[in-house]
Amino acid sequence: MNRIRTVLVGATAVALTGAALVGPAQAEPVGKTPTHTRTASASVTVKGLLPSVEIRVKTRYSDKIRIKGYNQYNEWVISPWFKSPSDWTLVNDWWWRKSATVRIEGVQTRGNKHREAYCTISNDHRGNQFSCDMWSKL
Length: 138
Known about the structure:
The protein is built from no helices and ten strands. The chain is mainly β and 138 residues long. Strands 4, 5, 6, 8 and 9 form a five-stranded antiparallel beta sheet that branches. A three-stranded mixed beta sheet has the order 7-3-10, with no helix packed on it. The chain has a two-stranded antiparallel ribbon with strand order 1-2.
């Protein structure tokens, strides 16, 4: 049975079901309580969100990738490993702060070769996905 909770956000009452997420999906803070387990009253308010994007990564050599950087709450986070079987891999449901540089790690499982590259997210970027072309690096 789903329970409905009412949470005050500013002066507006909002009914939430299931997980109480405010804003886009959360990247896991490193060494802290995962954001998705926080209650709405303990999470950062909507006005505390920083401009953020999901990242698409173009790879050539890597079978899997992960991203390290600052999320929409300005917390340092590390994504889990994502398979990168094609040229472009969307690391969805992980939001990265604009005007920041993220570190992208790639692994080629055959031969266990590790690579890394850096991608700076433009503050002027419009839209909710930012592309990092790492074809020659990852």
